[in-house]
Amino acid sequence: MSKIFVDACLGKETPYTPVWMMRQAGRYLPEYMAVRKEAGNFLNLCHNPKAAAEVTIQPLDIVGVDAAILFSDILVIPDEMGMDLSFLQGEGPKFSDPITCDEDIDRLIGGDEAASKLTYVFDTIKLLRKRLDERGDEIALIGFTGAPWTLATYMIEGQGTKTYNICKKMMYSNPDLLHKILKKVTEVVKLYMEKQIQAGIDVVQIFDSWASAIETDKYDEFSWSYMVEIAEYLKEKYPEIPIIMFPKGISAFYDKVYGNFDVFGVDWATPMALAKEKLGDKYVLQGNMEPCRLYSKEMITESVENIQKVMGSKRHIFNLGHGILPDVPVENAKHFVSECQRVSGK
Length: 346
Known about the structure:
With 346 residues, the protein is of the alpha/beta class. It contains 15 helices and 9 strands. It has a single domain, classed as TIM Barrel (Alpha-Beta Barrel). It has helices at residues 4-9, 30-39, 42-46, 49-62, 76-80, 102-106, 111-115, 119-135, 148-157, 165-173, 175-199, 216-237, 272-279, 297-311, 330-344; strands spanning 67-69, 85-88, 92-95, 140-146, 203-208, 243-247, 263-265, 284-286, 316-317. Strands 1-4-5-6-7-8-9 form a 7-stranded parallel β-sheet. Strands 2-3 form a two-stranded antiparallel ribbon. The model has no long low-confidence stretch (mean pLDDT 96).
């Protein structure tokens, strides 16, 4: 029996439009917070396959989504490449040793050596594969990675940023150095995602959370081309595995989107009708409710019905246009899922 979510990603007809939420395993769930507290901190939770599998499955039982997304973090990649990562309470992720020069890149672990260090992620996937198969409800498991550009911004800036001035200074004043970083990260990501597939994931999603930081004329060179390289590497080896691309904030250059992948994630700032017009014939579309609508059941229903009118249950996956926020009431997340299922005929 095929999984409805996988079929939807491949553009096949499905009995209803599946729904999941980015960051669906997270702080809005009291059950998640209990597991995280027991783990001690966020990185401990990522490194504990049993706990990570538990919080991956929680949204299936509590909220009723149609796909599970592996609980992990995009920054485990640079962490295992040899950078010093910490998550500080109230401050987010930080690297104590940001990349500034060739010597810094040369000291990073690359290729299969780095990818092979992420055993806790692969162990989590294997555990999830077993638990999901035992459930017998044909729930798909999504694996993921950050795009090389998004990963590089953290590696260069040392933390999250609103201006990206350090990486963009490198982009314009020393592009060769930035490309050297991006190439090294891309090679690790290819092998990391391949190992995720081998461990048992059904679908790959590549997040480019900081795509909108790059101007139109430079986006393909410094981000999209690397994402496409990863997708094409995986498609050549695993053509049956759907790939979702989610570059946030690039609607101004949808005309320039290309590549061998299956689903395009639409962010909340992009009208779904525009995405359908520009990309709907080439890719299945995912999204794109504004996450803050989750604070109002009335606004949830309005958005879900509007998206359904545009997409009409064809070549579409319901989702938010970015991640769910930590203070969203669980009841509202359930309402979003049930409304998506109602309008699409589940």
